[in-house]
Amino acid sequence: FFFFKQKTAYEISLGLVGSEMCIRDRYYPTARPLNIYLLMERTNPASKWKYVFEAYPWNTESYPTLFKEEEKSLLKGSSLLVDIEAYVNNTLSDYDSLCADAPEIAQYASREEYLKFALVQDSRTFGLTINGDYKTTYIPFAEFFNDKNKGASVDRDYDSEAERYVFTALQDIRAGEELTISYGHGNQYFTFISYGFINDERDGDQVKFFVPFSPSDPLREHKESLLSAHPHYKTIRMLAGTDNKRFSKALSFFRYYCYEGTKEGLDKLKEVSDNRPGRKPDSKPFKGHYIAPISLTNEKKALQTLKEVCQQELGKYPATYEEDLKLLKGKLDYNTRNCILYRSNEKKIFIDHISFLSKALAALALEEKKSILEFAAKDKDLQSYIDSILSLFQLFQFLQHN
User: Fold this and answer.
1) pLDDT, tens digit, for every residue of 139-172?
2) What whole-number distance in Å separates Cα of residue 207 and Cα of residue 374?
């Protein structure tokens, strides 16, 4: 299934480190065929995968998915608990379905063993887009590299013609020196839930929350019908800072959420979004992500609603951000530290967004163009937001339709 080659067993110079074939999870992904194959191989003493199994991180105590209830309680208020529950339920459902179709699977692993094996195995896989089709791919050679998001010593890429993953040294590497690659462009959420650690060099965390449509909204059913997925609620993800696509998409959705016009007006918003300049034909269906400012009134309501949601989410945590910072100064075990660090990062995102949204509301409350621009000039992030909404919608029309 794989091969690799390198300059020498002891020294690696700038250039090719290795390449190998990939095992792809092509069919029936919910049944995890890759997991089943490797589970059976694990019992084979002559398996060519033996060295891989020996390198697996079988100590899974730091993986949030397998946390004890006491450790999970440290994450109360975090949406990470929702993701953990979903992963466990989906994985065990896969196992039950497999055993119903092939009872002999049970001899290779119990439900608990399968959950642990699947978790470890999933943390070993990479996502690849091959011929336009996204695949989950297992790359054994990558098992020997540690994560370094910035300044990694080795790069990785997929050779579509040879159908191999290629590793290339980006610098001269001395014997005994650590080999590093980037595990992906994810943030701390990604490394924590996938690998059980928080890499401080990665960008800040993310927050995720769910926004149901109000039953009292006369346009609720029509708003839901226009969305392509999860019509009864919307999942919002935000990163640290407001000058990024996540925040733009979140605010865009709340413009849609707070719209109080007509059904025809909603249809027009969707039409404009679907026909926006630069939109690719294979782009994802409408999710309310590309709604330009509609009016001054709507923008204020969108900002205020998003601020209130952030305040509600922040209030779900038992401890405050300041209390977390004090705890982090003390002596903590590994999992406790990671949980408190993770939840404090989430809280910081909510706090910063609440502060920014308050300033944006204060700026728009001035309503007069010169006053808004002067107010925004005092804050770099606020000025970026004001400039962006003015570039998306003519200021005169924006201020007149209020």
Assistant:
1) 777 767 887 877 888 888 888 787 777 888 898 8
2) 32
